[in-house]
Amino acid sequence: MQLTVRDVSKLLKVSEKTVYRWIKSGKLPAYRVSDQYRFSRPELLEWATTRRVGISPAVLDEPRTDDASPASLLGAIGSGGIYYRILGDDKQTSLRSLIEVMKLPEEVDRDALLAALLAREELASTGIGQGVAIPHVRGTVVLHVEKPILSLGFLEKPIDFDAVDNQPVRALFFLICPTIRTHLHLLSRLSFVLQQESFMELIRRQTLRDEILQELGEIEATLEDHLTS
């Protein structure tokens, strides 16, 4: 879906004047179509997420195209798992360490996956600030996964991730999805969840799995109530 300036203004909860200022400064990815600006929803979401720009829950409320139940973060992290004391001295070694412990189908080439993640990091860091990064493959390359996988890895020691706030990263949320639509859907939800201070406090404390899962479930339930009301 190609978004207009008005759409972006509503989704990011800023004025249209602010949107134009971001475009002029080169901060916001935009395209000129017939003398008007248009925006890619996936690129807009990645931009907002990595810069911790607040988003409206409306960005999650997309038209359904089939009868399948939408994917949930709680279900995805149930498949991917939460891991502690992930080793690494830099981006490459920490990402490799997380990939090595993740529960992935045998068909997934872990070396190729690491290469794709590092290529994405070359474009722009996925460090969103406050000690968190969301490494993912740009455009979601199909990786032989039948359902979305979200893994949370807590690093043994903080590392430089070229984050937007220049702070070291301590937690990696690693998202792999079978389709672009699912990737966008879950990235939207994750961006919303990471704006909730109650959840971020658990991440900073590197608390127990059950506490993280419970809080995540409660936030998603509140979000569902908002979208259906």
Briefly say what this structure is.
By secondary structure, this protein is an alpha/beta fold.
Please tell me about this protein's structure.
This protein is α/β, with parallel strands linked by helices and 229 residues long. It folds into two domains: 2-54, Multidrug-efflux Transporter Regulator, Chain: A, Domain 2 (Orthogonal Bundle); 73-228, 3-Layer(aba) Sandwich (Mannitol-specific EII, Chain A), CATH 3.40.930. 45% of the residues lie in helices and 17% in strands. The chain has nine helices and eight strands. The protein has helices at residues 5-12, 16-24, 41-50, 73-80, 91-101, 110-123, 180-193, 197-205, 209-228; strands at 2-3, 31-33, 36-40, 82-86, 127-129, 132-133, 149-159, 169-176. The strands form two sheets. Strands 4-7-8-6-5 form a five-stranded mixed β-sheet. The protein has a three-stranded antiparallel β-sheet with strand order 1-3-2. A hairpin with a 2-residue loop joins strand 2 and strand 3 (36-40). Helix 1 packs across helix 2 (16-24) and helix 8 (197-205) packs antiparallel against helix 9.
What is the secondary structure topology, with strand pairs?
Blueprint lengths: L1 E2 L1 H8 L3 H9 L6 E3 L2 E5 H10 L22 H8 L1 E5 L4 H11 L8 H14 L3 E3 L2 E2 L15 E11 L9 E8 L3 H14 L3 H9 L3 H20 L1
Helix pairs in contact: 1-2, 3-7, 5-6, 8-9
